[in-house]
Amino acid sequence: MDDDGELESEISNFKYQGARLKSQFLEYNKEYKSYIFELNGIPKEIEKSVKNVQGGLQKLKFAATALSGDYDSRTKPGARIEPDNPELSDMSPEIRAAVKERQTFRDLLSSANDLLTKAMEASEAEFKKMGDLHGKIVELNSGKIGPLKEMLMKFGSEVAVALDTREEEIKNQKEAVMNARKILEKFRGNMKKAGQKLDDVLGMTRVLKGIPGGRLLGDLAGVPRDTDGYWRKLEALQDQVSYNGNMVRRLEQRLALVKDAKIDLRGFGTLASGLGNRASSTIRALNEMEARMVPIKKGFNSIAQSAANVASSMEVAAGTSRGKDGYAKKIIIVAQSTFFEPSIRAEGRSVYETILQGYGSSEKPAEVEDVINEAREELSRTESTQLSGVEDVLGPLNDVI
Questions:
Q1: What is the DSSP string of 275-321?
Q2: How does pLDDT run across 38-59, given as a tens digit for each residue?
Q3: Cβ proximity of 188 and 238 under 8 Å
Q4: Nearest Cα to 60, choosing from 309, 295, 299, 298?
Q5: What is the Cα–Cα distance from 224 to 221, expressed in whole angstroms?
Q6: pTM above threshold 0.85
Q7: What is the rounded average pLDDT for all residues in the chain?
Q8: Dihedral pair phi/psi, residue 86, rounded to 5°
Q9: DSSP letters spanning 51-115
Q10: pLDDT in tens, 213-230
C-alpha cells in the first residue's frame, strides 16, 4: 500500500500544475476583457460621430435656408468686399448687409464642414480601432487561448483518470481490509468463547492441585495446567483487529483527500472552452460587422468628401462668387450622401427639401435640376429599401460585449 506522503505529493503536484494553468488562463482572460472594454466604447464614439453629422447637417440646413430666394442679388453688392475691409463701416447699408449675409452663409458652411469633418475623422478612427481589436482578438484566440484550451483539457482528462484510478484502488484496499477485519473479529469471538470454556477447565485444575497426586492425574486426563498462552494469542489477535481498524480509518482519510482533490481540480476543460467560445463569438460578430460596415464606411467617406467640396467653394478670392446655383448643387450632393444611413437620413432629406423650397416655382438651371432629380431617386430608393444602418451593424457587437 502506498504511504500517505506519496499520495499527498501526487495531489500537490496536480494542484501546482493546475494553479499554473489557471494563472495563464486568468492572464489571457484579462487580456480578452481589455479588448472587450475597448470595443465597448466604439458604439458610443460612433454615436457621437452620428450626432456630429446631425449637427453638421443642421448647420447646412441653415445655410440652405440662407440661399432661399434671390440670394445672388442680395449678396452681389458686397461680392468684391471682405468682412475685414477697414472701409466697410463707411459703405452703404446695402453693401454692409450684402457682405454680412454672404459672410453668415460662409460661416454656416464652415461650421457644417467642421462638424462633418470631425465626425468623419472620429468615425474613421473608431472603424480602424475596431479592425485592430479584431486582429488582436483573433491572434489571442489562435495563438494563446486555443493552445491553452488543449492543455487544460488534456490536463483535466489526465487528472480525472489518475484520481479516479487512485480512488478505485483505495476503495478496493479498504474493502479488502474490512473483509479481513470481519474474519478476524469472527475468529476472535470463537477464540474468546473457547477461552471461557478453558477457564471452566482451569477450575478443575485448581481442585486437582489440592489433592495428593492430583497434578499427575490432571496431566494424565489432559487437563491444562493454565490458559495464559491461549489468552496471549487472543490479545495478539485483538491487536491485529485494532490495527485493521486504524488502517480502515487511514484509507478513509486518503479517500477523502482524493475526493477533495477531484473537486478542487475539476472544470479545467470547461474553463478553457468558456473563454474560447466567448472569443469565437466576438470574432464572428466582428467578421459580420466588418463585412456589413464596408458600405457604411464608404457612405461616411462620401459625406466627408462632398462636405469638403462645399468647403472648397468658400475659398474664393474677393470679387468672385460661386452663386446660389453652385452652392445649391454642392449642398444637395452632401444631403444625398447621407441617404444611405437611417440615423441621419431625416436630416439630409430636410437639407435637400430646404434647397427645393428655396427655389420655389422659379426655373432651375439644368445642372441643378439634374442633381435634384438624382437625389430624389436616391432618396426614394433608400426609403423603400431595408438598409442596415450603424445601429443595426453594431447590434452583434452589443451582444458579445
A1: HHHHHHHHHHHHHHHHHHHHHHHHHHHHHHHHHHHHHHHH---TT--
A2: 888 888 888 888 888 899 999 9
A3: yes
A4: 309
A5: 9
A6: no
A7: 77
A8: -65, -20
A9: HHHHHHHHHHHHHHHHTTTTHHHHHGGGTT--TT-TTGGGS-HHHHHHHHHHHHHHHHHHHHHHH
A10: 434 434 444 444 444 554
Does 7 have pLDDT greater than 90? Answer: no
Provide the 10 A C-beta neighbour count for residue 271.
Answer: 20
Binned at pLDDT 50, 70 and 90, residue 356 comes out as very high
- pLDDT for position 151: 86
Return the ∠ at Cα 23 (arms to 277 and 261), rounded to 5°. Answer: 95
The pLDDT of 120-149, averaged and rounded, is 88
Give the separation between CA 86 and CA 279, rounded to whole angstroms.
65
Domain segments of the chain as ranges: 4-400
CB 393 within 8 A of CB 296: yes
Residues 180, 185, 191, 195, CA torsion sign: positive
Write out the H or E segment, with its range, that includes residue 327.
helix 323-337
Q: Does position 263 have pLDDT exceeding 70, yes or no?
A: yes
For residue 330 the three cell numbers come to: 454642392
Contact assessment for residue 323 and residue 87, using Cβ atoms and an 8 Å cutoff: no
